[in-house]
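Give me the fold.
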Amino acid sequence: MQNKIPVWTTVVESYRFAFLNFVNNLGATWMPLVAMMAAGYFLTPKYLAATQNAMPLQAVGAGGSGDAAANIALQNNLRTMLETAPYVTAMWVLNFVCIASISVGIVREALQLRSGQAYLQSPVGPPVWRLMANWLLLLVAFFALYIVVLIAIVILAVVAAVVIGVGASQGGATVTASQGSVVGSVWLTIVAVVCLVGLGGAITYVVVRFTFLITPVVVAEERIALFRSWEITRGNFWRLMTIGLGVWLPSFLAGFAYLNVVMGPDWIPPLHFPINPQDMVTWSQHATVLSQRAIESSRRLWFVIYPAGLLFSVVSYGLSNGAMAFCYRAVVATKPGRAPTSV
């Protein structure tokens, strides 16, 4: 029988680890965190400078000058994408490696598997490469699953439309064409809502089961194990969800408040539905202005923003990865400082 994860104990232990073990956690993560901050400091302005040439897309199909303007904007934006691609790629690769390094370092601390001084740990190595490989394999698997689900949804929608249409046509002579159309639309809406809710729940379930314990599995068992997290989290889904909310929700709210202070209360543009193409252009322009404002603030108040960001990141990563490590320790019933020898 699978061990049950103690929810309250795990949440409390995660907070205690994040704050009381802060010094060692900082030692395990300072190099990748500084690398990400330095890359953001130097590469983000270059990326924003390249995006200044982007043009809003005009409506296509009006004919004449409207189509010509849209084509010019499209060609210009394609060139802009090519110009920004090196910066985006560099930032993505660097962040991918650094986040894997941070996760490995924190989990080592939580499971007491670190050897040597915390501040002298190598930010890369076999555990980091294994974790990155596991993440990439999961991305490929999720993408394949997404394609399968998408095909299934299309087939289900077609079958539902045919069945509802046949049912409406056989409903008797008293059912008019317009009434049949209304009935069909109502049933299609109900089916769509039920499918979306079910699909959202299924995706959440699969993602939590497959990903929650990836990092401690890779660190403690020293292997790439795509299905190991799924195996050892059996019967603990709702416990993992509760623990995740307990450690991630406060971090999210704190990050939201931090952005509100750094970027101002207008950092989220006004929302209204339905969203049209002009709204997307407005959002893009708003994001550019906010990014420029953030860069200006970071350069003017670097002695406040970067240390605060570093402290917040260490605590946040300590909470999330500490919770994963303690959940892993609970389900495999290992003693601190010892990885399972045969699992």
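The two ends are 15 Å apart (CA to CA).
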